[in-house]
Amino acid sequence: MQLKKIHHVAIIASDYQRSKAFYCDILGLEILAENYRAERDSYKLDLALSGDYQIELFSFPDPPRRINGPEAAGLRHLAFAVDDLDAATESLKQQGIEVEPIRVDEFTGKRFCFFRDPDQLPLELYEE
Asked: What is the pTM of this model?
């Protein structure tokens, strides 16, 4: 088997409309398709970044909460590449998003920082 690339990441939102606004209006992802699945009382929103299919945003009635922070077993965080970390963090802050202090990757020397989506899922901005 030879993997080519990551096709998508799936996220379950506790408040679909709030998360849809966050990923589309604040982060700027493009809607490719939005479907309501009546049998599951669930939305499935396909989002793209720079034309590539990246995120499936789901809603389900009463999903269980994440138990603890990024050191829990499972997906640790989702990282987005940016050209200008200072401008990206300032844009988030202007929209009321709390951003952790900028750090430097000890192995690559690149700058990065973390912030959270409406369900407190950890997201990272990584300066290329």
From this structure: 0.82
Strand 52-59 versus strand 111-116 pairing type: unpaired
pLDDT of residue 125: 93
3-state secondary structure of 56: strand
- Give the structural domain span for 29: 1-62
Domain final position from 62, 90, 115: 62
Domain count, the chain: 2
Task: Give the burial string for 35-72 (b: 16+ CB within 10 Å, else e).
Answer: eeeeeeebbebbbeeeeeebbbbbbeeeeeebeeeeee
Give residue-wise pLDDT tens across range 4-47.
777 789 898 989 999 999 999 999 999 999 999 999 899 999 99
